[in-house]
Amino acid sequence: xxxxxxxxxxxxxxxxxAHAPADLENAKAxxxxxxxxxxxxxxxxxxxxxxxxKSRGASINLxxxxxxxxxxxxxxxxxxxxxxxxxxxxxxxxxxxxxxxGQGGLHPVSLTLERIESxxxxxxxxxxxxxxxxxxxxxxxxxxxxxxxxxxxxxxxFYVEGGTAEAPNLLRTHTxxxxxxxxxxxxxxxxxxxxxxxxxxxxGDMPEIRVIAPGRTYRVDSDATHSPMFHQxxxxxxxxxxxxxxxxxxxxxxxRTFFENNDLVLRFRPSxxxxxxxxxxxxxxxxxxxxxxxxxxxxxxxxxxPNVIRNMGLDPEKYIGFAFGMxxxxxxxxxxxxxxxxxxxxxDIRFLSQFQ
Length: 356
Ligand code: DAH
Hints:
42% of the residues lie in helices and 19% in strands.
């Protein structure tokens, strides 16, 4: 009997010393496994008489049950401990301060572009996008800009590799090439639909072209009010009966809405652009505030030149309209009272975050 008690005690001790499930299973094998001590005792009963077997067997069974009970208890303890440890490890301290995620916002010039798009959108203008690497044809030639025009000089324009000597590629110096690109697509679409006129300048009927084209533009220029990369937004309205008075109405309405000031005064000052005739520079004047009384130039504009209308694929006897090109950077400076354009492109968060 004593030997059995000793075995049970040593099993209890071995189980208590097992701190991981694998250790516990090893310890179990020492007692209950094929060559375990209890199993060996069972085997040893073969030589006993029937009477002896009965009482010895019962005692061994009791010891075995005691060992199994100790084993199960320890298994449960280890499982509980593991669960506790896991809960501890995954515990959330809800009293810790939250982690801040820096929130981004739109650049002030992007805010202006969105504003321009929504105002012109409300007047029925589409928005078109085009390439920043442009060909000589779209940037100059198609816009009636002659070979000897100063804008074509190396000093004013970033030429890039890839074109030919007669037709170099360049970073577009304005968004005006989008007038041609967009109109050509528009005409193509309605020429295909009209069936009447397959070739030549189109003089059939089509819906009006009404579009703005905002985007980045480039010139060799850099000071407080000029940046080598800047933004422009082109506007184009072509139809059968679109006049300069429509230009005045549309642009006046735009400026007053943009600056939220119905007393804003506009001046259309005669000027020259190769792609418009007549041409006008558009100045605005605030009735009050820090800029009151000064004429501020915001756009170039004019009635689209017949040669440009032709390059759009349209018959200038039938189609007429106006175009304008404005500077969203300038509009942003005026709207927020910023006096150095370069601030917009330095990427200083302290400056940019003020517009959110
Ligand atoms: N493209 C001209 C520039 O960059 C601006 C301009 C003038 C655009 C007259 C126009 C226009 O559409 O009609 O200086």
